[in-house]
């Protein structure tokens, strides 16, 4: 149905002010510093290698087929590079666009599921944008925000409208297919249970069970066909080992304990209860809002369809992910949207059924306000604590010079959260969003030099252009390829024998080392020394490092190494 001008105006006004506010804050945060290692740098390395080597079908990293992910995100990055040129601006704008689309979709989904509660369509995006972990992870050039967007799009296709009760099965299948092309079979898990349990929340599914399951199965087969349309030719092009990893080991090793693979995989094995323990982090700041927990605890049958939908989505999916061997916090990113629907629906029901409890100040945001004021006090006294040797550490020492400026921010946010009256959820959302932006800014001003890989990347890029082979001691994860615009693989060296062989074969080669502490010999013989997180990166002439490892004394270098300061990140020359 074509929207008339009035209807279009109403839809645009419904996005105000949460979408522009979130877009401005997200753009400020994502461009505050460079791509984050190892999340963003690895994704950009794969996109760069595909682009540079013209591998449009098979993702590659460090000269080898990359079976960990499907190619849709890389293709979208390439589409922007085709128009704007290669750089990291377009991929970051893409991520902001994915996040904005997710907020719009959760608003539409809330409107469909709770047609009698217009408040839900406004409250759901406000709640989702306030989640600190989801916001910060959305600043990474990664696959999961795009995956969450496809999952929300697919679930939106299952819901009914006033004019169209039957699900849009073709669109459901297409969204599943695009999700599969984003991150593989895990997409099915994010949409499976709302479909399987459809008769519990959907009147149409309850009335037309055969069509619901039959058409849903066909839609999923359509999505799988889209994945196979890429995976089969990609597997043939990538070789037998790549095909085996793509179709079996890279998924099975994450799900089942004991599956062995020829190459190491990022399985991220965790205990069953790990997600339960991580819930406070995933749900912050709402974990500190008493009204949210009271509303959830007060839920009683009969529940309206929207709440039943959220429960059918969140609870079984959370259980399955908890049972799966491999776990990362961002695996549950799509389910945070379902949790938001459940939370907002519970609050709406509390207001309707128990208005006195819903409006009491004792259940307000005051615990978060008190916490913000306490944090502001800590930031204010931090320089004195550090100067008086009462508190030391990597973070306190780095943050002390700037902490009092940010103490003012958290003081104001604490006062905002102590206010009472209407608009409590919106105040909490704004405070959560601004507070997360403030922490990201503080990180940029203080800790980012310890994460910035540009000095090493540029040195390696210049060395490769000069014809020097490059090796890496340990497991290399593509962190230098994009920023250094490297075009050849970096050779992994796992022991002294491989290092000696590399130095003998490439006497003019370079080797990157990642030690936990700086050896005095590095400040004498290395080419570059820079901080990286709580450790260091050292770039050596391969022959020099091989001599040192064998006990020999290498010749004196022609020039002293570049040493980057751990606090300011400014290059200086070490005599």
Automatic annotation (TrEMBL):
Name the UniProt record assigns to this protein: Glycosyltransferase family 39 protein
Glycosyltransferase RgtA/B/C/D-like domain residues: 69-230
Pfam families tied to this protein: PMT_2
UniProt keyword DNA repair, yes or no: no
PANTHER family: MANNOSYLTRANSFERASE YKCB-RELATED, MEMBRANE PROTEIN
Residue span of region Disordered: 551-575
Keywords: Cell membrane, Glycosyltransferase, Membrane, Transferase, Transmembrane, Transmembrane helix
Coiled-coil annotated spans: none
Secretion signal, residue range per the UniProt entry: none
Subcellular location: Cell membrane
Membrane topology value: Multi-pass membrane protein
Membrane-spanning segments: 15-32, 96-114, 126-150, 170-198, 210-232, 272-294, 306-324, 330-350, 362-382, 402-419, 428-448
